[in-house]
Amino acid sequence: MNNSFIQINNISKHFKEVKAVDDVSFEIKEGEFFSLLGPSGCGKTTLLRLLAGFEYPTYGNLLIDGTDITALPPDKRPTNMVFQNYAIFPHLNVEKNIQFGLRKLDLSNDEIGNRVKDVLTLVKLEGYEERFSNQLSGGQRQRVALARALVRQPKVLLLDEPLGALDKKLRDEMQLELRTLQKNIGITFVFVTHDQQEAISMSDRVAVMNDGKIQQLSAPNELYKNPKNIFVSDFIGETNFLKAETKSSDGEFINVSIEELGEFKIKNNLNIAANSSNVVCSVRPESMMISKVKSDWDICLDAKIRQTSYLGEMTRFYVEVQGIDKTITVSSQHFDNQSFENNECFISISLEDISLLNKK
Amino acid sequence: MNEKNNTLLIYTLLYFGFLYVPVLFLPIFSFNDANYMSFPLAGFTTEHYEEMWSKRNLHKALWASIKVGVVASVISTTIALFAAKAFARYKFRGEKISYGGIMMPFLIPEIILAVAILIIWINLGFKLGLVPVTIGHTLFCTPFAMLILIARIEGFDFSLEEASRDLGENAWGTFFRVSFPLYLPGIVAALLLSFIISFDEFILAFFLTGSDATLPMYMWGQMRFVQKLPHVLALGAVIIVFTTFIVLLAFWLRNVGQGKGKKDIAVKL
Predict the structure, then answer these.
(1) Span(s) in chain A for CATH 2.40.50.140
(2) What is the mean pLDDT of chain B?
(3) What is the ipTM of this complex?
(4) CA distance B164 to chain A (A)
(5) A-contacting residues of B 86-125, CB under 8 Å?
(6) Cβ contacts (< 8 Å) between B160 and chain A: which residues?
(7) Where do the CATH 3.40.50.300 domains begin and end in chain A?
(8) CATH architecture of A238-358
(9) Model-level pTM?
(10) Based on the number of CB atoms within 10 Å of its own CB, is A241 exposed (0-12), middle (13-18) or buried (19 or more)?
(11) Does an H or E element contain A244, and which?
(12) In the prediction, which pLDDT does B256 show?
């Protein structure tokens, strides 16, 4: 396994004054399912297009499998792309669409036939050879786009929000299917999405982007549990931000005063400076406990439920807590909204579930 | 509500009547057994059509018009295709100015264009004839062809071209395997309309033909003699039918397969 299969070295892409991608460097491993995640305009699509060769970087260079591809046109790169709108050629049927990219590969007719057959089986589209794009559903088009790219056996498959146009149920199915497919064929996938749930559920590693920069690059569970900054914490999942101020530090731990709740000793994973007001605490809604009676957790607060929403697998409570001047969101699997008398409840927090972050 | 609809209906009928009734007289009188265009009709005859076939000069003029039309439409559509692609696809400096520049012959009076070409052509020491007519027609047809092609190309999904590049085709391969087949209905529509515009064009031809008459020039020449009028009517009727057919075909082609598959075109055919 090559750990630096794709090397992105100090890549910048400027469109006039706009720095779409701003001095980004990282590596992607061979056979990895890698996601670029971020809100629209964060530079993720530009980065993917730089890899595909539809854009050329203003600065920096790109290597795939040891070869510098920075200046190569798209047709000379070992990459293939699944487009957001699939870009199925409307004047060609499914078979011709899939054969399109094989012409330049110098294959025998038998080989072409076999490859097309195999890839159609792979994406479960046998029997659709004669169909045209307008006779296919969204999911089928997506499969054609996938087949057309995979039939060339690229070193890297680039996917530009390929599931965005599908309805929720189909999207969930395709997520699972794409993931299985990738594991089976072992090709490196670079997947662009704005959907954090999608990125987290499918990827080996995720790079969260904002303002043209990588905010955090790590495994999905790390992103969720140990966000490196306020952007990642906010973008991945849901969270409550609490006003905070750091006091004295003893290296591993730091004393933090949170809202009006008092001072607590919190693990300082991000080496945040002592005596700073430029910090914030983040607590996930599901890491807190809501209960009818007082608990013995590190922090237990009197609270009043203002609103509840029942979401099926869990209930979300919007609560007012003494000493915190805004509504806190708490999720729980165990209660429905009838459980509490006069909406009185207790909210418990464990100190290890509080992440301390720099504000910017 | 009903009353309002009736008013609109009358207006519409009047409009189309005013537009097409005079034109309808042409075929009617072309079958009339008389030299004058006047009622009552004298009797049915196809004699004028037979006479039309026998005119050598008419054949020559028709051939001249076809040559000019084919060359002018091919050149203007080619220029228009490149221009339309640039305008529809890219943002570039001088975009508005070049667009205006190409559209100009559409707006300036044809007679001025004709006189301008005439003066330059004579001063360059060239002879009048079909060549300057073709050049004039190319200039005049290009904006029409470009408008048709821009409409076609603007609805075009450019990620198809990127997909082609991504799948290993170079720029030329992409043009011939993806862009050209998808632009084709638009290109044919532009060719047909350019040809018809050139085929019917009179003013530029009038100034620039010299002795090689085009068809409209021939007709104009014949109109001066009363006894020759009927076969010009016959010719006019034929041209109306032919032109209408081509224009309808061009408009149909312009819309066909817009963002749809070849299969659709086949079904509609």
Answers:
(1) 238-358
(2) 84
(3) 0.82
(4) 8
(5) none
(6) 87, 89-90
(7) 6-228
(8) Beta Barrel (2.40)
(9) 0.79
(10) middle
(11) strand A240-249
(12) 66
